[in-house]
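Collaborator request, handled under Task 6.
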Amino acid sequence: MPIQLDPLFSGGGRPMIDLLSHCVRSVNTDALLLYFVNEYRLRPFASAAIALYDVFCSLDSAGCIHERSMIAPRDLRLQQSIEPLRSSLNAIDRSTREPASPDVDNETVEGPQADADAEMATVVGPPMPPPYLFDHVCRAVRSGSHVRELEMKYDVTRSPNENLPGGEMSASQRAFVDNTWTPHIRPYLAAAGFWRVTTIG
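Structure tokens returned to the collaborator:
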């Protein structure tokens, strides 16, 4: 019987973890993106948006989605939205690492120059990205073959591995889990605020 991803994602518990672990082991990054975008919508922070873009929506990433009609270079909207967020976070990071300039001859600077210095010293937070930032990508992913096939074939009564063809990971799937997901993607997403990812895989 076909499943629907959203109720399993929102239901939590073991069924959700098993489904997501199966997605990791089958390298179904399209379905993984749908889950993490649901989480992102609850807390739409710049660092989370950048992490989702870097992992799932960049052709340079081993975790890039298979449905690519709505990401660069075919569609530049998401990339153009992410770039100012990344620039803002980089600027904030630089400002927190740079030492404060010492006073000249220990004199107190007053007037317009003091106001300008105070303004430059103020760290402005990154812009808050909209919760719908990834919605056009998710619409394309939902209609793609990787999500439709998962919903048709996944059996909630079976384990993540039992839902794989032959009941075990192929060599390429195991390489993705061991060499990409576990050491790189999972900690990157966790650091961006997706704390539930630590139980997946």
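The cover message to the collaborator said: "The longest helix spans residues 77-97. Confidence is low (pLDDT under 50) at residues 100-109, 114-121. Please let us know whether this matches your experimental observations."
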